[in-house]
Amino acid sequence: MKALQFSVSIPKYLALKVLGSVNRRLYYLGPLATVRCVDIPEPDLPSPRWVKIRSLSCGFCASDLNLIFLRDSPSASPFTSFPCVLGHEVCGEIAETGSEVKGLKSGDIVTIAPHLNCTTREIEPECAACRSGRLGNCENFAKGILSPGMFVGICRDTGGGFGQYFVAHESQVFRLPDGIPYEAGAVIEPLSIALQAVLDNRPRTADDVLVIGGGVIGSLIIKSIRALDIDCKITVAEPSPFAADHARRVGADHIIVDGDLLKHATRITGATRYKPMLGMDILMGGFTRVFDVVGNSKTINLAMRSMAAEGVLSIVGIGHDVKLDLTPAWLKLQTIRGVFAYGHTMVNGERKHVFDMAIDMVLEGKVQVDDMVTHKFALDDHAKMIETNLAKGRNRAIKTVVTYA
């Protein structure tokens, strides 16, 4: 089968860190490229409880881009295995079922929750995170019947959505109802990320909410808040005029495009701004709920300085080597939450997977996701897809996907 395969070695890593700073196309073109289109065998079913899925559509995630350009922290390397086929935002058709699979059949159109937790790895007893329902935060990503890998797309045994076929455990698979297009099916996974972040840091009507970053996840956070019928005030800080306009259309009340977050925060929230002897200004008062979808040193420090006492900051963006001044955290009793993946949550007294909630919201029209798919590519055009994502504002791109005829 044809697949977009990722692989890296220490010599390649070191060479790209030097040469790639001069010509970033070396990361995805030429002999040093971390990704290339290859012909490889279809993945085998790891056990009788797995299914094989034919890819129909797969979204290109910012985490895919970071992996290709070797921007991820090495701290995550124990939980990956190479070579791997990228792609975890998927919609596909079941092509084969294991002998012990129940409730699924060939021909079903599905999406998957890609994380490879205790159940998929056939580990008993389950770890504490899996028992609590946070399956995407499993403690055993490098154990069990599979090679290391936090999710489908960075595990060499499973394949991924940027291959014509991949495999998934029955517990990962969610059938898509009629009426959800294939491309929309591939956006269920990022919608679930955003929805879980909102459920974990759920705003109230009186809250002043700040979203730093108005791209795919930032827009889906706005859509999730509105789909939950929370009539709070939402401010989005986003430098790209194109992305900022989209954020306004999907429910943001205020847009900050000039980068002066502290100035606008005083106007929007009524906070008071103070200037220290040295360093960045700090606000007393400010936003009560913050979702930082960028997650670098600058944005996290700004978030903390613009956040009110007892505010909650959810760090959605995955940065590394972040340097923080923790003064706002102790001065204003702030809570900082990590955000990664999704799992089960309680809804009206019922335990429900966030993927089921996301699918219901799309089906009921509470969240529109097909409007976010702006560009479609064939797998052979992966270089063009990467370049489109490197200049989203210029290309007027939101979500890009690979589609299969």
> Uncertain spans, ≥5 residues at pLDDT below 50?
none
As a percent range, the share of strand residues is 15-25%
* Number of extended strands: 20
Terminal CA distance reads 14 Å
Query: Class of the largest domain in CATH?
Result: Alpha Beta
Morphology call:
globular
**Number of discrete helical segments:** 13
| Cα Rg | 21 Å
Going by CATH, the architecture of the largest domain would be Alpha-Beta Complex
SS class:
alpha/beta
Please summarize the sheet with the most strands: 7 strands, mixed
Oligomer: single chain
> CATH-wise, what's the superfamily of the largest domain?
Medium-chain alcohol dehydrogenases, catalytic domain
CATH topology of the largest domain, by name, is Quinone Oxidoreductase, Chain A, domain 1
Portion in helices: 25-40%
**Average pLDDT value?**
96
Tally the structural domains. 2
List the helices and strands and how they pair.
Layout: E1 2-6, H1 10-19, E2 35-39, E3 50-59, H2 62-68, E4 84-85, E5 89-97, E6 109-112, H3 128-131, E7 165-169, E8 173-175, H4 182-185, H5 188-200, E9 208-212, H6 216-227, E10 233-237, H7 241-249, E11 254-256, H8 261-269, E12 272-274, E13 282-284, E14 287-292, H9 297-305, E15 307-315, H10 327-331, E16 335-338, E17 344-347, E18 350-353, H11 354-363, E19 373-377, H12 382-390, H13 392-395, E20 399-403
Parallel strand pairs: 9-10, 9-14, 10-11, 14-15, 15-16, 19-20
Antiparallel strand pairs: 1-2, 1-4, 3-5, 3-7, 3-20, 5-6, 6-8, 12-13, 17-18
Helix pairs in contact: 5-6, 5-11
